[in-house]
Amino acid sequence: MSRMVAFVLYGVVVLLLSILLMVTGIKFSQLNKEITEVKVHLERISHGGKTSASSAAEGEKTVEEVFLQKLAPVRGTCGNGWSSFQRSCYLLSTSPVTWSKAEEQCRAHGGHLLVVNNVEELDFISKIVELRYSYWIGLVEREHEGHWSWVDGTDFHSTPTFWDKGQPDNWDYRENGEDCGQLHASERRKRKMWNDADCSLWYQYICEAVVPL
C-alpha cells in the first residue's frame, strides 16, 4: 500500500514538474517574443531617426538652394523665380509685408524695390502681376512732403510719373501719413498706376535687380 502511495506521489510530482516546465517554457517564449518585438521597435525608431535627420538635411538643402536661386541674378541671366525684361530681373513676392521690410528683403536678394524708368517697363510689370493686388515699389517720400525719390538713387524728376487719378493725396486720415509708393490695385485697366500709401501697411512687393553685363 505504501508503495502504491509512493508511486502516486511520484506521479503527482512528475506531473507538477511537467506543468511547471510547460508554464516556464510558455513564459520564456512570450518573454523572448516581447524582447524581439522591443528590438524591432527600437530598430524602427533608430531607422526613423536617421530618416528624419536625412530628410531634415535634405529640407535644409532645399531651402538653401531656393534661397540661393533667388539671390542676385548671375551674369547675363535671371535666377529661377525671376522675370527678365531689358537689363533687369524682377521678383514678385508671395506674401505681404511693410514697405521697409519689403525693401530689406529685396536688398537681401541683391536688388531693391522696383524703380519704374519708363512706360515700357511699367507695361511689362503690369502683365506679370495680379491686377487685383497692390504692390510696394521703390518710391518713397523721405525729406519733406511732396519730395519723392527712388530707392536706387535715380533722379525722380528724370523718370516719367504714373500717378493714379487724384494721387498722391497723402490721405490725412492716416496717422502715419502716406509716404510710400505702390502699384495701385485695379482690375478695370491693364496698366498699373501709382498710389501713395501708409508705409506700415502690408502689401506684396516687386524686387528689381540689374543683370550684370
From TrEMBL:
<keyword id="KW-1015">Disulfide bond</keyword>
<dbReference type="Pfam" id="PF00059">
    <property type="entry name" value="Lectin_C"/>
</dbReference>
<dbReference type="InterPro" id="IPR016186">
    <property type="entry name" value="C-type_lectin-like/link_sf"/>
</dbReference>
<dbReference type="InterPro" id="IPR016187">
    <property type="entry name" value="CTDL_fold"/>
</dbReference>
<dbReference type="GO" id="GO:0030246">
    <property type="term" value="F:carbohydrate binding"/>
</dbReference>
<feature type="domain" description="C-type lectin">
    <location>
        <begin position="85"/>
        <end position="208"/>
    </location>
</feature>
<protein>
    <submittedName>
        <fullName>Putative C-type lectin domain family 4 member E-like</fullName>
    </submittedName>
</protein>
<dbReference type="InterPro" id="IPR033989">
    <property type="entry name" value="CD209-like_CTLD"/>
</dbReference>
<dbReference type="InterPro" id="IPR001304">
    <property type="entry name" value="C-type_lectin-like"/>
</dbReference>
<dbReference type="InterPro" id="IPR050111">
    <property type="entry name" value="C-type_lectin/snaclec_domain"/>
</dbReference>
<dbReference type="InterPro" id="IPR018378">
    <property type="entry name" value="C-type_lectin_CS"/>
</dbReference>
<keyword id="KW-0430">Lectin</keyword>
